[in-house]
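Task 17 of the worksheet. Students: predict the tertiary structure of the chain below and write it out as structure tokens. Keep your answer in the requested format; marks are given for formatting as well as content.
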Amino acid sequence: PRLAAQGEPVEPLPQGVVAQVNGEDIAMQDYLEYLYQRFGKRGVREMVGDLLVEREAARYGVVVDEAEVVRIANEREEGMRRGQDEQTFLANLERNGQDYGLFRNSIEAEIRTELRLSGLVLKTRVATDEKIQQLFERKHGLGGVRMEIRHIVAMPNILRAEAVREGADPSTIDMEQLRATARSQAERAREQLISGADFATVAAELSHDRVTKDRGGKIENYNGRLYGPAFRGVLDRLQPGELSPVVESGAGFHVVELISRTETSLAEVRDALIDEILSAEPNFQEMTSLRNSLIEAAKIRLF
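Model answer:
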């Protein structure tokens, strides 16, 4: 290419030669040995993995849409260009040992493998009881009980950090005293709420939970496990609209309000959960696991 750019005639390299340096041929076999010394069997293993995926996809009738390959490749190329002009982009490819044809072939081959793996996951995925239970609890809460809650929490560790910032010697800080102070702050917050204070206002003023204090104390998507069983046990005894006594968790001392409670039976939604599991977009972990399982199951001998 450099000679062509300089207007000099370029003759094709002899068969089996990958390069010439000052007139001396470098044979393909020498290049392969060099690659093996640098990278070992990694490239061969990747090639075998791609081949196994291609064969398994054919066995399951997974067909790659070439128009989709081109569309995705165009998107990735655009992302890699990052506004570079044509000359700069091609120059960067050359610095990495590629020309445009090699670049496109490489990313399109990668995309074909990804699409085959995605199709295989959808063809072979199983909705196990474990997956069904996990999705059920994620959507409907632990035991099928979804609770909408908000809280105010006073955390001893936050009080300790504040004391250190104010100049206290960490070795002299009494954590039991800080726990007592945190409990007292939570009791004070509860008294204000019982007296009719606005929950969001008290949360913004007194809660140490930086994630929830600016949204009125609301815990988004409470899963039934956050803050432990004692916290959950208090919630189970509340009716919507009720305020809890101060409850201690590993994080600190909470005052919790149950906003609403919805109960769902697994039997009622099981079929819908199975459909959702089987039709969900395959993720990277699933595709990697499937590829690795094909490699592990194959009888492979490497040089």
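Marker's comment: The beta strands are 17-21, 24-27, 145-154, 218-219, 247-248, 253-263. DSSP finds 13 helices and six strands in the chain.
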